[in-house]
Amino acid sequence: MPHSRTVLARLCLAGVASLSLAACATVPGAAIAPGSPISAAEAQQGAEYHPQFVAEFGGAMSGPQASYVEQVGQKIALQSGLANSQSAFNVTLLNSSVNNAFAVPGGYVYVTRQLVGLMNNEAELAGVMGHEVGHVAARHSARRQQTAQRNQLLGVLGSVLSGVLLGDSTLGRLGQELSSTAPQLATLSYSRSQELEADQLGIQYLRGAGYDPRAMGTLLYSLAAQNALDASLQGRANATAPQWASTHPDPASRVQSALAQAGNATGVTNADVFLTRVNGLMYGDDPQQGVIEGRAFIHPAMRLSFTAPEGFYMVNGAQAVSINGESGRAQMSTASFSGNIDAYVRQVFQGLAGQGQQLAPQQLQRTTINGIPAAYGTARVASGQSQVDVSVFAYQFANNQAYHFAAITPAGGAGVFNSMFQSMRRITAQEAAQVIPRRISVITAGRGDTVQSLAGRMAFTDGQVERFRVLNGLTADNQIVAGQKYKIVVKAN
């Protein structure tokens, strides 16, 4: 769970950073000609940003699975011509439950375990990392940074509030200071032409490394299918926002483009090797970072739980839990606590304002929620021609520990989160012990197995068949083949 740092700006970014499906990005580098080797300045910059990315996206994983991902990533990155040695590339498997991949100038490549779990062969793994390295090799980041500086991230919050225009308001300025930090730059979008160029480079790298170049298209298909499934399971009508569309324009059409570029070329996929290596990989939330079960969030280490309002969905990140809906957005987080809950609430408000700005609740009120001392307040902020309410609801769990929600809604709409504020509670040691991780289990289909029979073994209470098909890259027409390996998700023993 997070340390406090401009949470409202994070609220503005929640639909981008926390929800991005394979959000690919590079932090800004020098405007070096495409195809040039890694420069000393880029290498220094990558080393500087690396710890920030690792911390932001759940930490680096280690062990055989991480070593395998590193091996494949270094092999495909070498095809870019950015360096002459595989050791020049630092490939990190991130402990994150969002489908995400990105690269940093200087030879740093990142992919989350969740995205790896969605893949079905080694060629797909190489393809997605080749795509990210392609952005670096093409030096897309300089143009991207110029766009980011113009946009200042203000448009993101506008979409959160369903069309509220920010203008040059205090609220609009709240998000600006994060526009230059490495983790948030990992969530800014490329143009469609840049995405297509990175796809093309990724396919070129696949060919050069001997992989099946069609893997780029099949991976894009799985990501588009996962995006649509997530939207359906979360009750969202729009499957393109805020997830993939935040950083990858029009993924569905890119599937056909990638397959057309690959043509009838062949190459290895190393499917059996890949499935053997990812067997046992954690899937979904890491209990050490809390888990989402339906509308409930449960954190066994922090011994707390709360429930999102009806019609809202949650995304768990390394720094915060975001709660998203059409009528508002919130995040649950923590900050340093001196023992005074009133001072804590005021501190959070001021942290939302950013440097040089002032933000304070109109009044503070004390209460008790399920036996937990709490305090809350709301501030109304002008936003262009409209107004919004910023609310903070904080809970004192111990003398040196507090947690809080920071929420933003259209003016007068803060009550949409009341049920969530009231639902915060402590959990027992027995409840905490029952929270166990899900993992990928690779099984071999037997005679008589069907999609329904294998999907019935998935450790979910909803969408079992749909989840199974997406996880294995199966279309609605694909059937189970006896003797073939498939992935299911099970509760770890």
Proportion of residues in extended strands = 15-25%
| Mean pLDDT score | 81
How many beta-strand elements? 17
Report the total helices: 18
Tell me the helix content.
Answer: 25-40%
Radius of gyration: 23 Å
Tell me the major beta sheet.
7 strands, antiparallel
Distance between the termini: 25 Å
Provide the domain count.
3
Structural class: alpha+beta
Strands side by side in the biggest sheet: 8-9-10-14-13-12-11
Give the uncertain stretches in residue-range form: 1-23, 25-31, 146-187, 239-249
> What would you call the shape?
globular
Descriptive account of the structure:
One of its GO terms (cellular component) is membrane. Residues 1-22 form the signal peptide. It comes from Croceibacterium xixiisoli. Keywords: Hydrolase, Metal-binding, Metalloprotease, Protease, Signal, Zinc. GO terms for molecular function: metal ion binding; metalloendopeptidase activity. By secondary structure, this protein is an alpha+beta fold. It folds into three domains: 9-282, no CATH class; 287-433, Protein Transport Mog1p, Chain A (3-Layer(aba) Sandwich), CATH 3.40.1000.10; 438-491, Membrane-bound Lytic Murein Transglycosylase D, Chain A, CATH 3.10.350. The chain is built from 18 helices and 17 strands. The chain has helices spanning 7-17, 40-56, 64-77, 113-118, 122-137, 141-151, 154-160, 170-174, 182-185, 192-209, 215-233, 251-262, 271-278, 341-353, 418-423, 429-433, 451-455, 464-471; strands at residues 90-94, 101-104, 108-112, 282-283, 291-293, 296-299, 304-307, 313-316, 321-325, 328-334, 364-369, 372-383, 386-398, 401-410, 425-426, 438-444, 485-491. It has a seven-stranded antiparallel beta sheet. It has a four-stranded antiparallel beta sheet with strand order 5-6-7-15. It has a three-stranded mixed beta sheet with strand order 1-3-2, sandwiched between helices. Helix 3 (64-77) packs across helix 5 (122-137), helix 5 (122-137) crosses helix 10 (192-209) and helix 11 (215-233) runs antiparallel to helix 12 (251-262). The relative contact order is 0.14. Mean pLDDT is 81; it is low at 1-23, 25-31, 146-187 and 239-249.
